[in-house]
Amino acid sequence: MTSVEKGERNTYLGAKEPKYSILTYTWGRWVDQSRNAPALPVKGTTWRIPAVKIEHFSVASFLRIVDRMGAEDVDWAWIDVACIDQENTLIKMDEIGRQASVFQNAHRVFLWLSHTSLDLLKTSFSDITRYSFELGCIGTKYGRLSLTVPELIDCLCETTNRLLNDPWFSSLWTLQELVLRNDALVLSKEGEDLFLDSEQVMSAQSLFMISLISSCQNAYSLVEGVKLDLEKIERLSVDQQMTLDQGRTIMQNIMGAGLYFLFTDNPNVQYSIAQYRRTSRPEDRVYAIMQVYNLRVGQSLRPNDAPPLHQLIDEFALAILSTDPMLGQLFLHTAQPETNKSWRLTQNSRVPPELMAYKEPSPCCQIGTILERGTAIATGEYIPFRDLLALFQQNGDTVDPDFAFQIMFDDYLVELMGLQIFPFISITQSSDPDKTWICNNKIACSERGDRNLFVLLLGDFKDGWNFREKQSDRRNLALVLLKQGFKDAEGSKDHSTFKRLGLCYWTLQVPDIREQVANLGWKHGSLELC
């Protein structure tokens, strides 16, 4: 294997922009610092190829993978250790910032599960497909189950534990690569691909990652149904509790591997999943996922500047907000944010299913400029929360059945408020404004909250199809903010900051209601988000 340096106009040994294959695998956590392990035999590099511990993979097994890639009708391959100078930080960080284009332009992608044998891969995929099918047959006319529901859950738990234990599913770099290319051909430890028969898929073919993702998503949804049924039981038996715990483990395995919410227009989903993945360096918490947003920050953008992690997280969040302020807030905090950082997206977040489809966004505000104390400035239209809520409650019994207004508090607030129900409010035609729990929660009805709750309009994006108007509706999104006061350093002047509490959104299909919302008296100005 020979490393060839890129020439002028993207030529390699005279070949201009040749087709190439690419490999997604993991090795960084297994570098042999003692240099006792043999390095990969790569010619033509000016840098030392890293040696990898033999327990992770051997030189011989790696070369089998390279040979498998060469068996395709493609003469060139892109493999990071042979194409990125691992000893030159400036070059390495620049290449890290190009990973999206490198993967997206590859002709073929190979995914190497270096700890998973072909037999294990075959039985695991077959078992996930089979047990999920049987679980889906519960309560239907499609024959008797060969196993009971607890037995099916037990088998799925064992299978997902075994398969998703491969190190590839724990690397943050490979999560980014999976998002960029989910059409990768899966290779076993031996470098062989699994050939599926027509009983497993519609037609005989090799196992591509998209098939494994679909099987895991199906398993997740079916197991979630069993979990929800068990959670309705007031007192569980020992066996029922075991089944519930195993169901939760299955869901966590699939979620942590990033295989459930992969197909989404909202990249914040993958960013939130990144908390379950591992990196060799703390800074890679950002560098290993930023290309999902097609962004470059920190040292990948400024090679001579290596900001610490806390500054890198700020810069990354601000870069997302600068590109799309609505996307930068399209999440819920799962943990209490740092002081003055409620505006900032981090991996301690999640995206509710209602906000995963994010098409044709139209932001109407700006969020940027971090002040010295860590707050951010938002400029746009805002009104008191109670004015918006009063309008929707007033129309709650008279508007179209498709009309809906929802509020979602950040997850950590739900626990702090002691709420025993879902952390969102839904006001529709059938809801009674006097009984909805917004009237009783500890924020909206407190003296502080009632007067100091505001909403900042973020924008709107494409929603479902409106058959009456024969066009797609638009979903409006806003931040729910709590106004807080403090004095300046001299203690002589009052300042106000606004802390994020969550999101609210609404879809309006009735023209006169849309007009009423537009005429609520929105003010345009700048708010300091803390």
Describe what you observe in this structure.
Helix content is 32%, strand content 20%. It has 530 residues and is an alpha+beta fold. It folds into 3 domains: 11-112, no CATH class; 118-182 and 205-256; 376-529, no CATH class. Helix 8 runs antiparallel to helix 9 (238-256). The longest helix is centred in the middle third of the chain and has 23 residues, at 209-231. Mean pLDDT is 82; it is low at 396-402 and 419-445.
Q: Please describe the biggest sheet, giving its number of strands, its sense, and whether it closes into a barrel.
A: 9 strands, antiparallel
What assembly state would you assign to the polypeptide chains in this entry? single chain
Compute the number of strand runs: 19
Helix content: 25-40%
The number of distinct helices, counting runs of at least 4 residues, comes to 16
Q: Alpha-carbon distance between the termini?
A: 53 Å
Key traits:
16 helices, 20% strand, 530 residues, nine-stranded antiparallel β-sheet, 3 domains
Give the helices and strands, then pairings.
Blueprint: E1 11-12, E2 15-16, E3 20-24, H1 59-70, E4 76-78, H2 80-83, H3 89-96, H4 99-104, E5 108-112, H5 118-136, H6 149-163, H7 172-180, E6 185-187, E7 195-196, E8 205-206, H8 209-231, H9 238-256, H10 268-273, H11 284-287, H12 309-323, E9 332-333, E10 349-350, E11 362-363, E12 366-370, E13 376-384, H13 385-394, E14 404-409, H14 411-416, E15 424-427, H15 447-452, E16 453-466, E17 471-487, E18 494-507, H16 511-518, E19 523-529
Parallel strand pairs: 3-4, 3-5, 5-6
Antiparallel strand pairs: 1-2, 7-8, 9-10, 11-16, 12-13, 13-16, 13-19, 14-15, 14-18, 16-17, 17-18
Helix pairs in contact: 5-6, 5-8, 6-9, 8-9
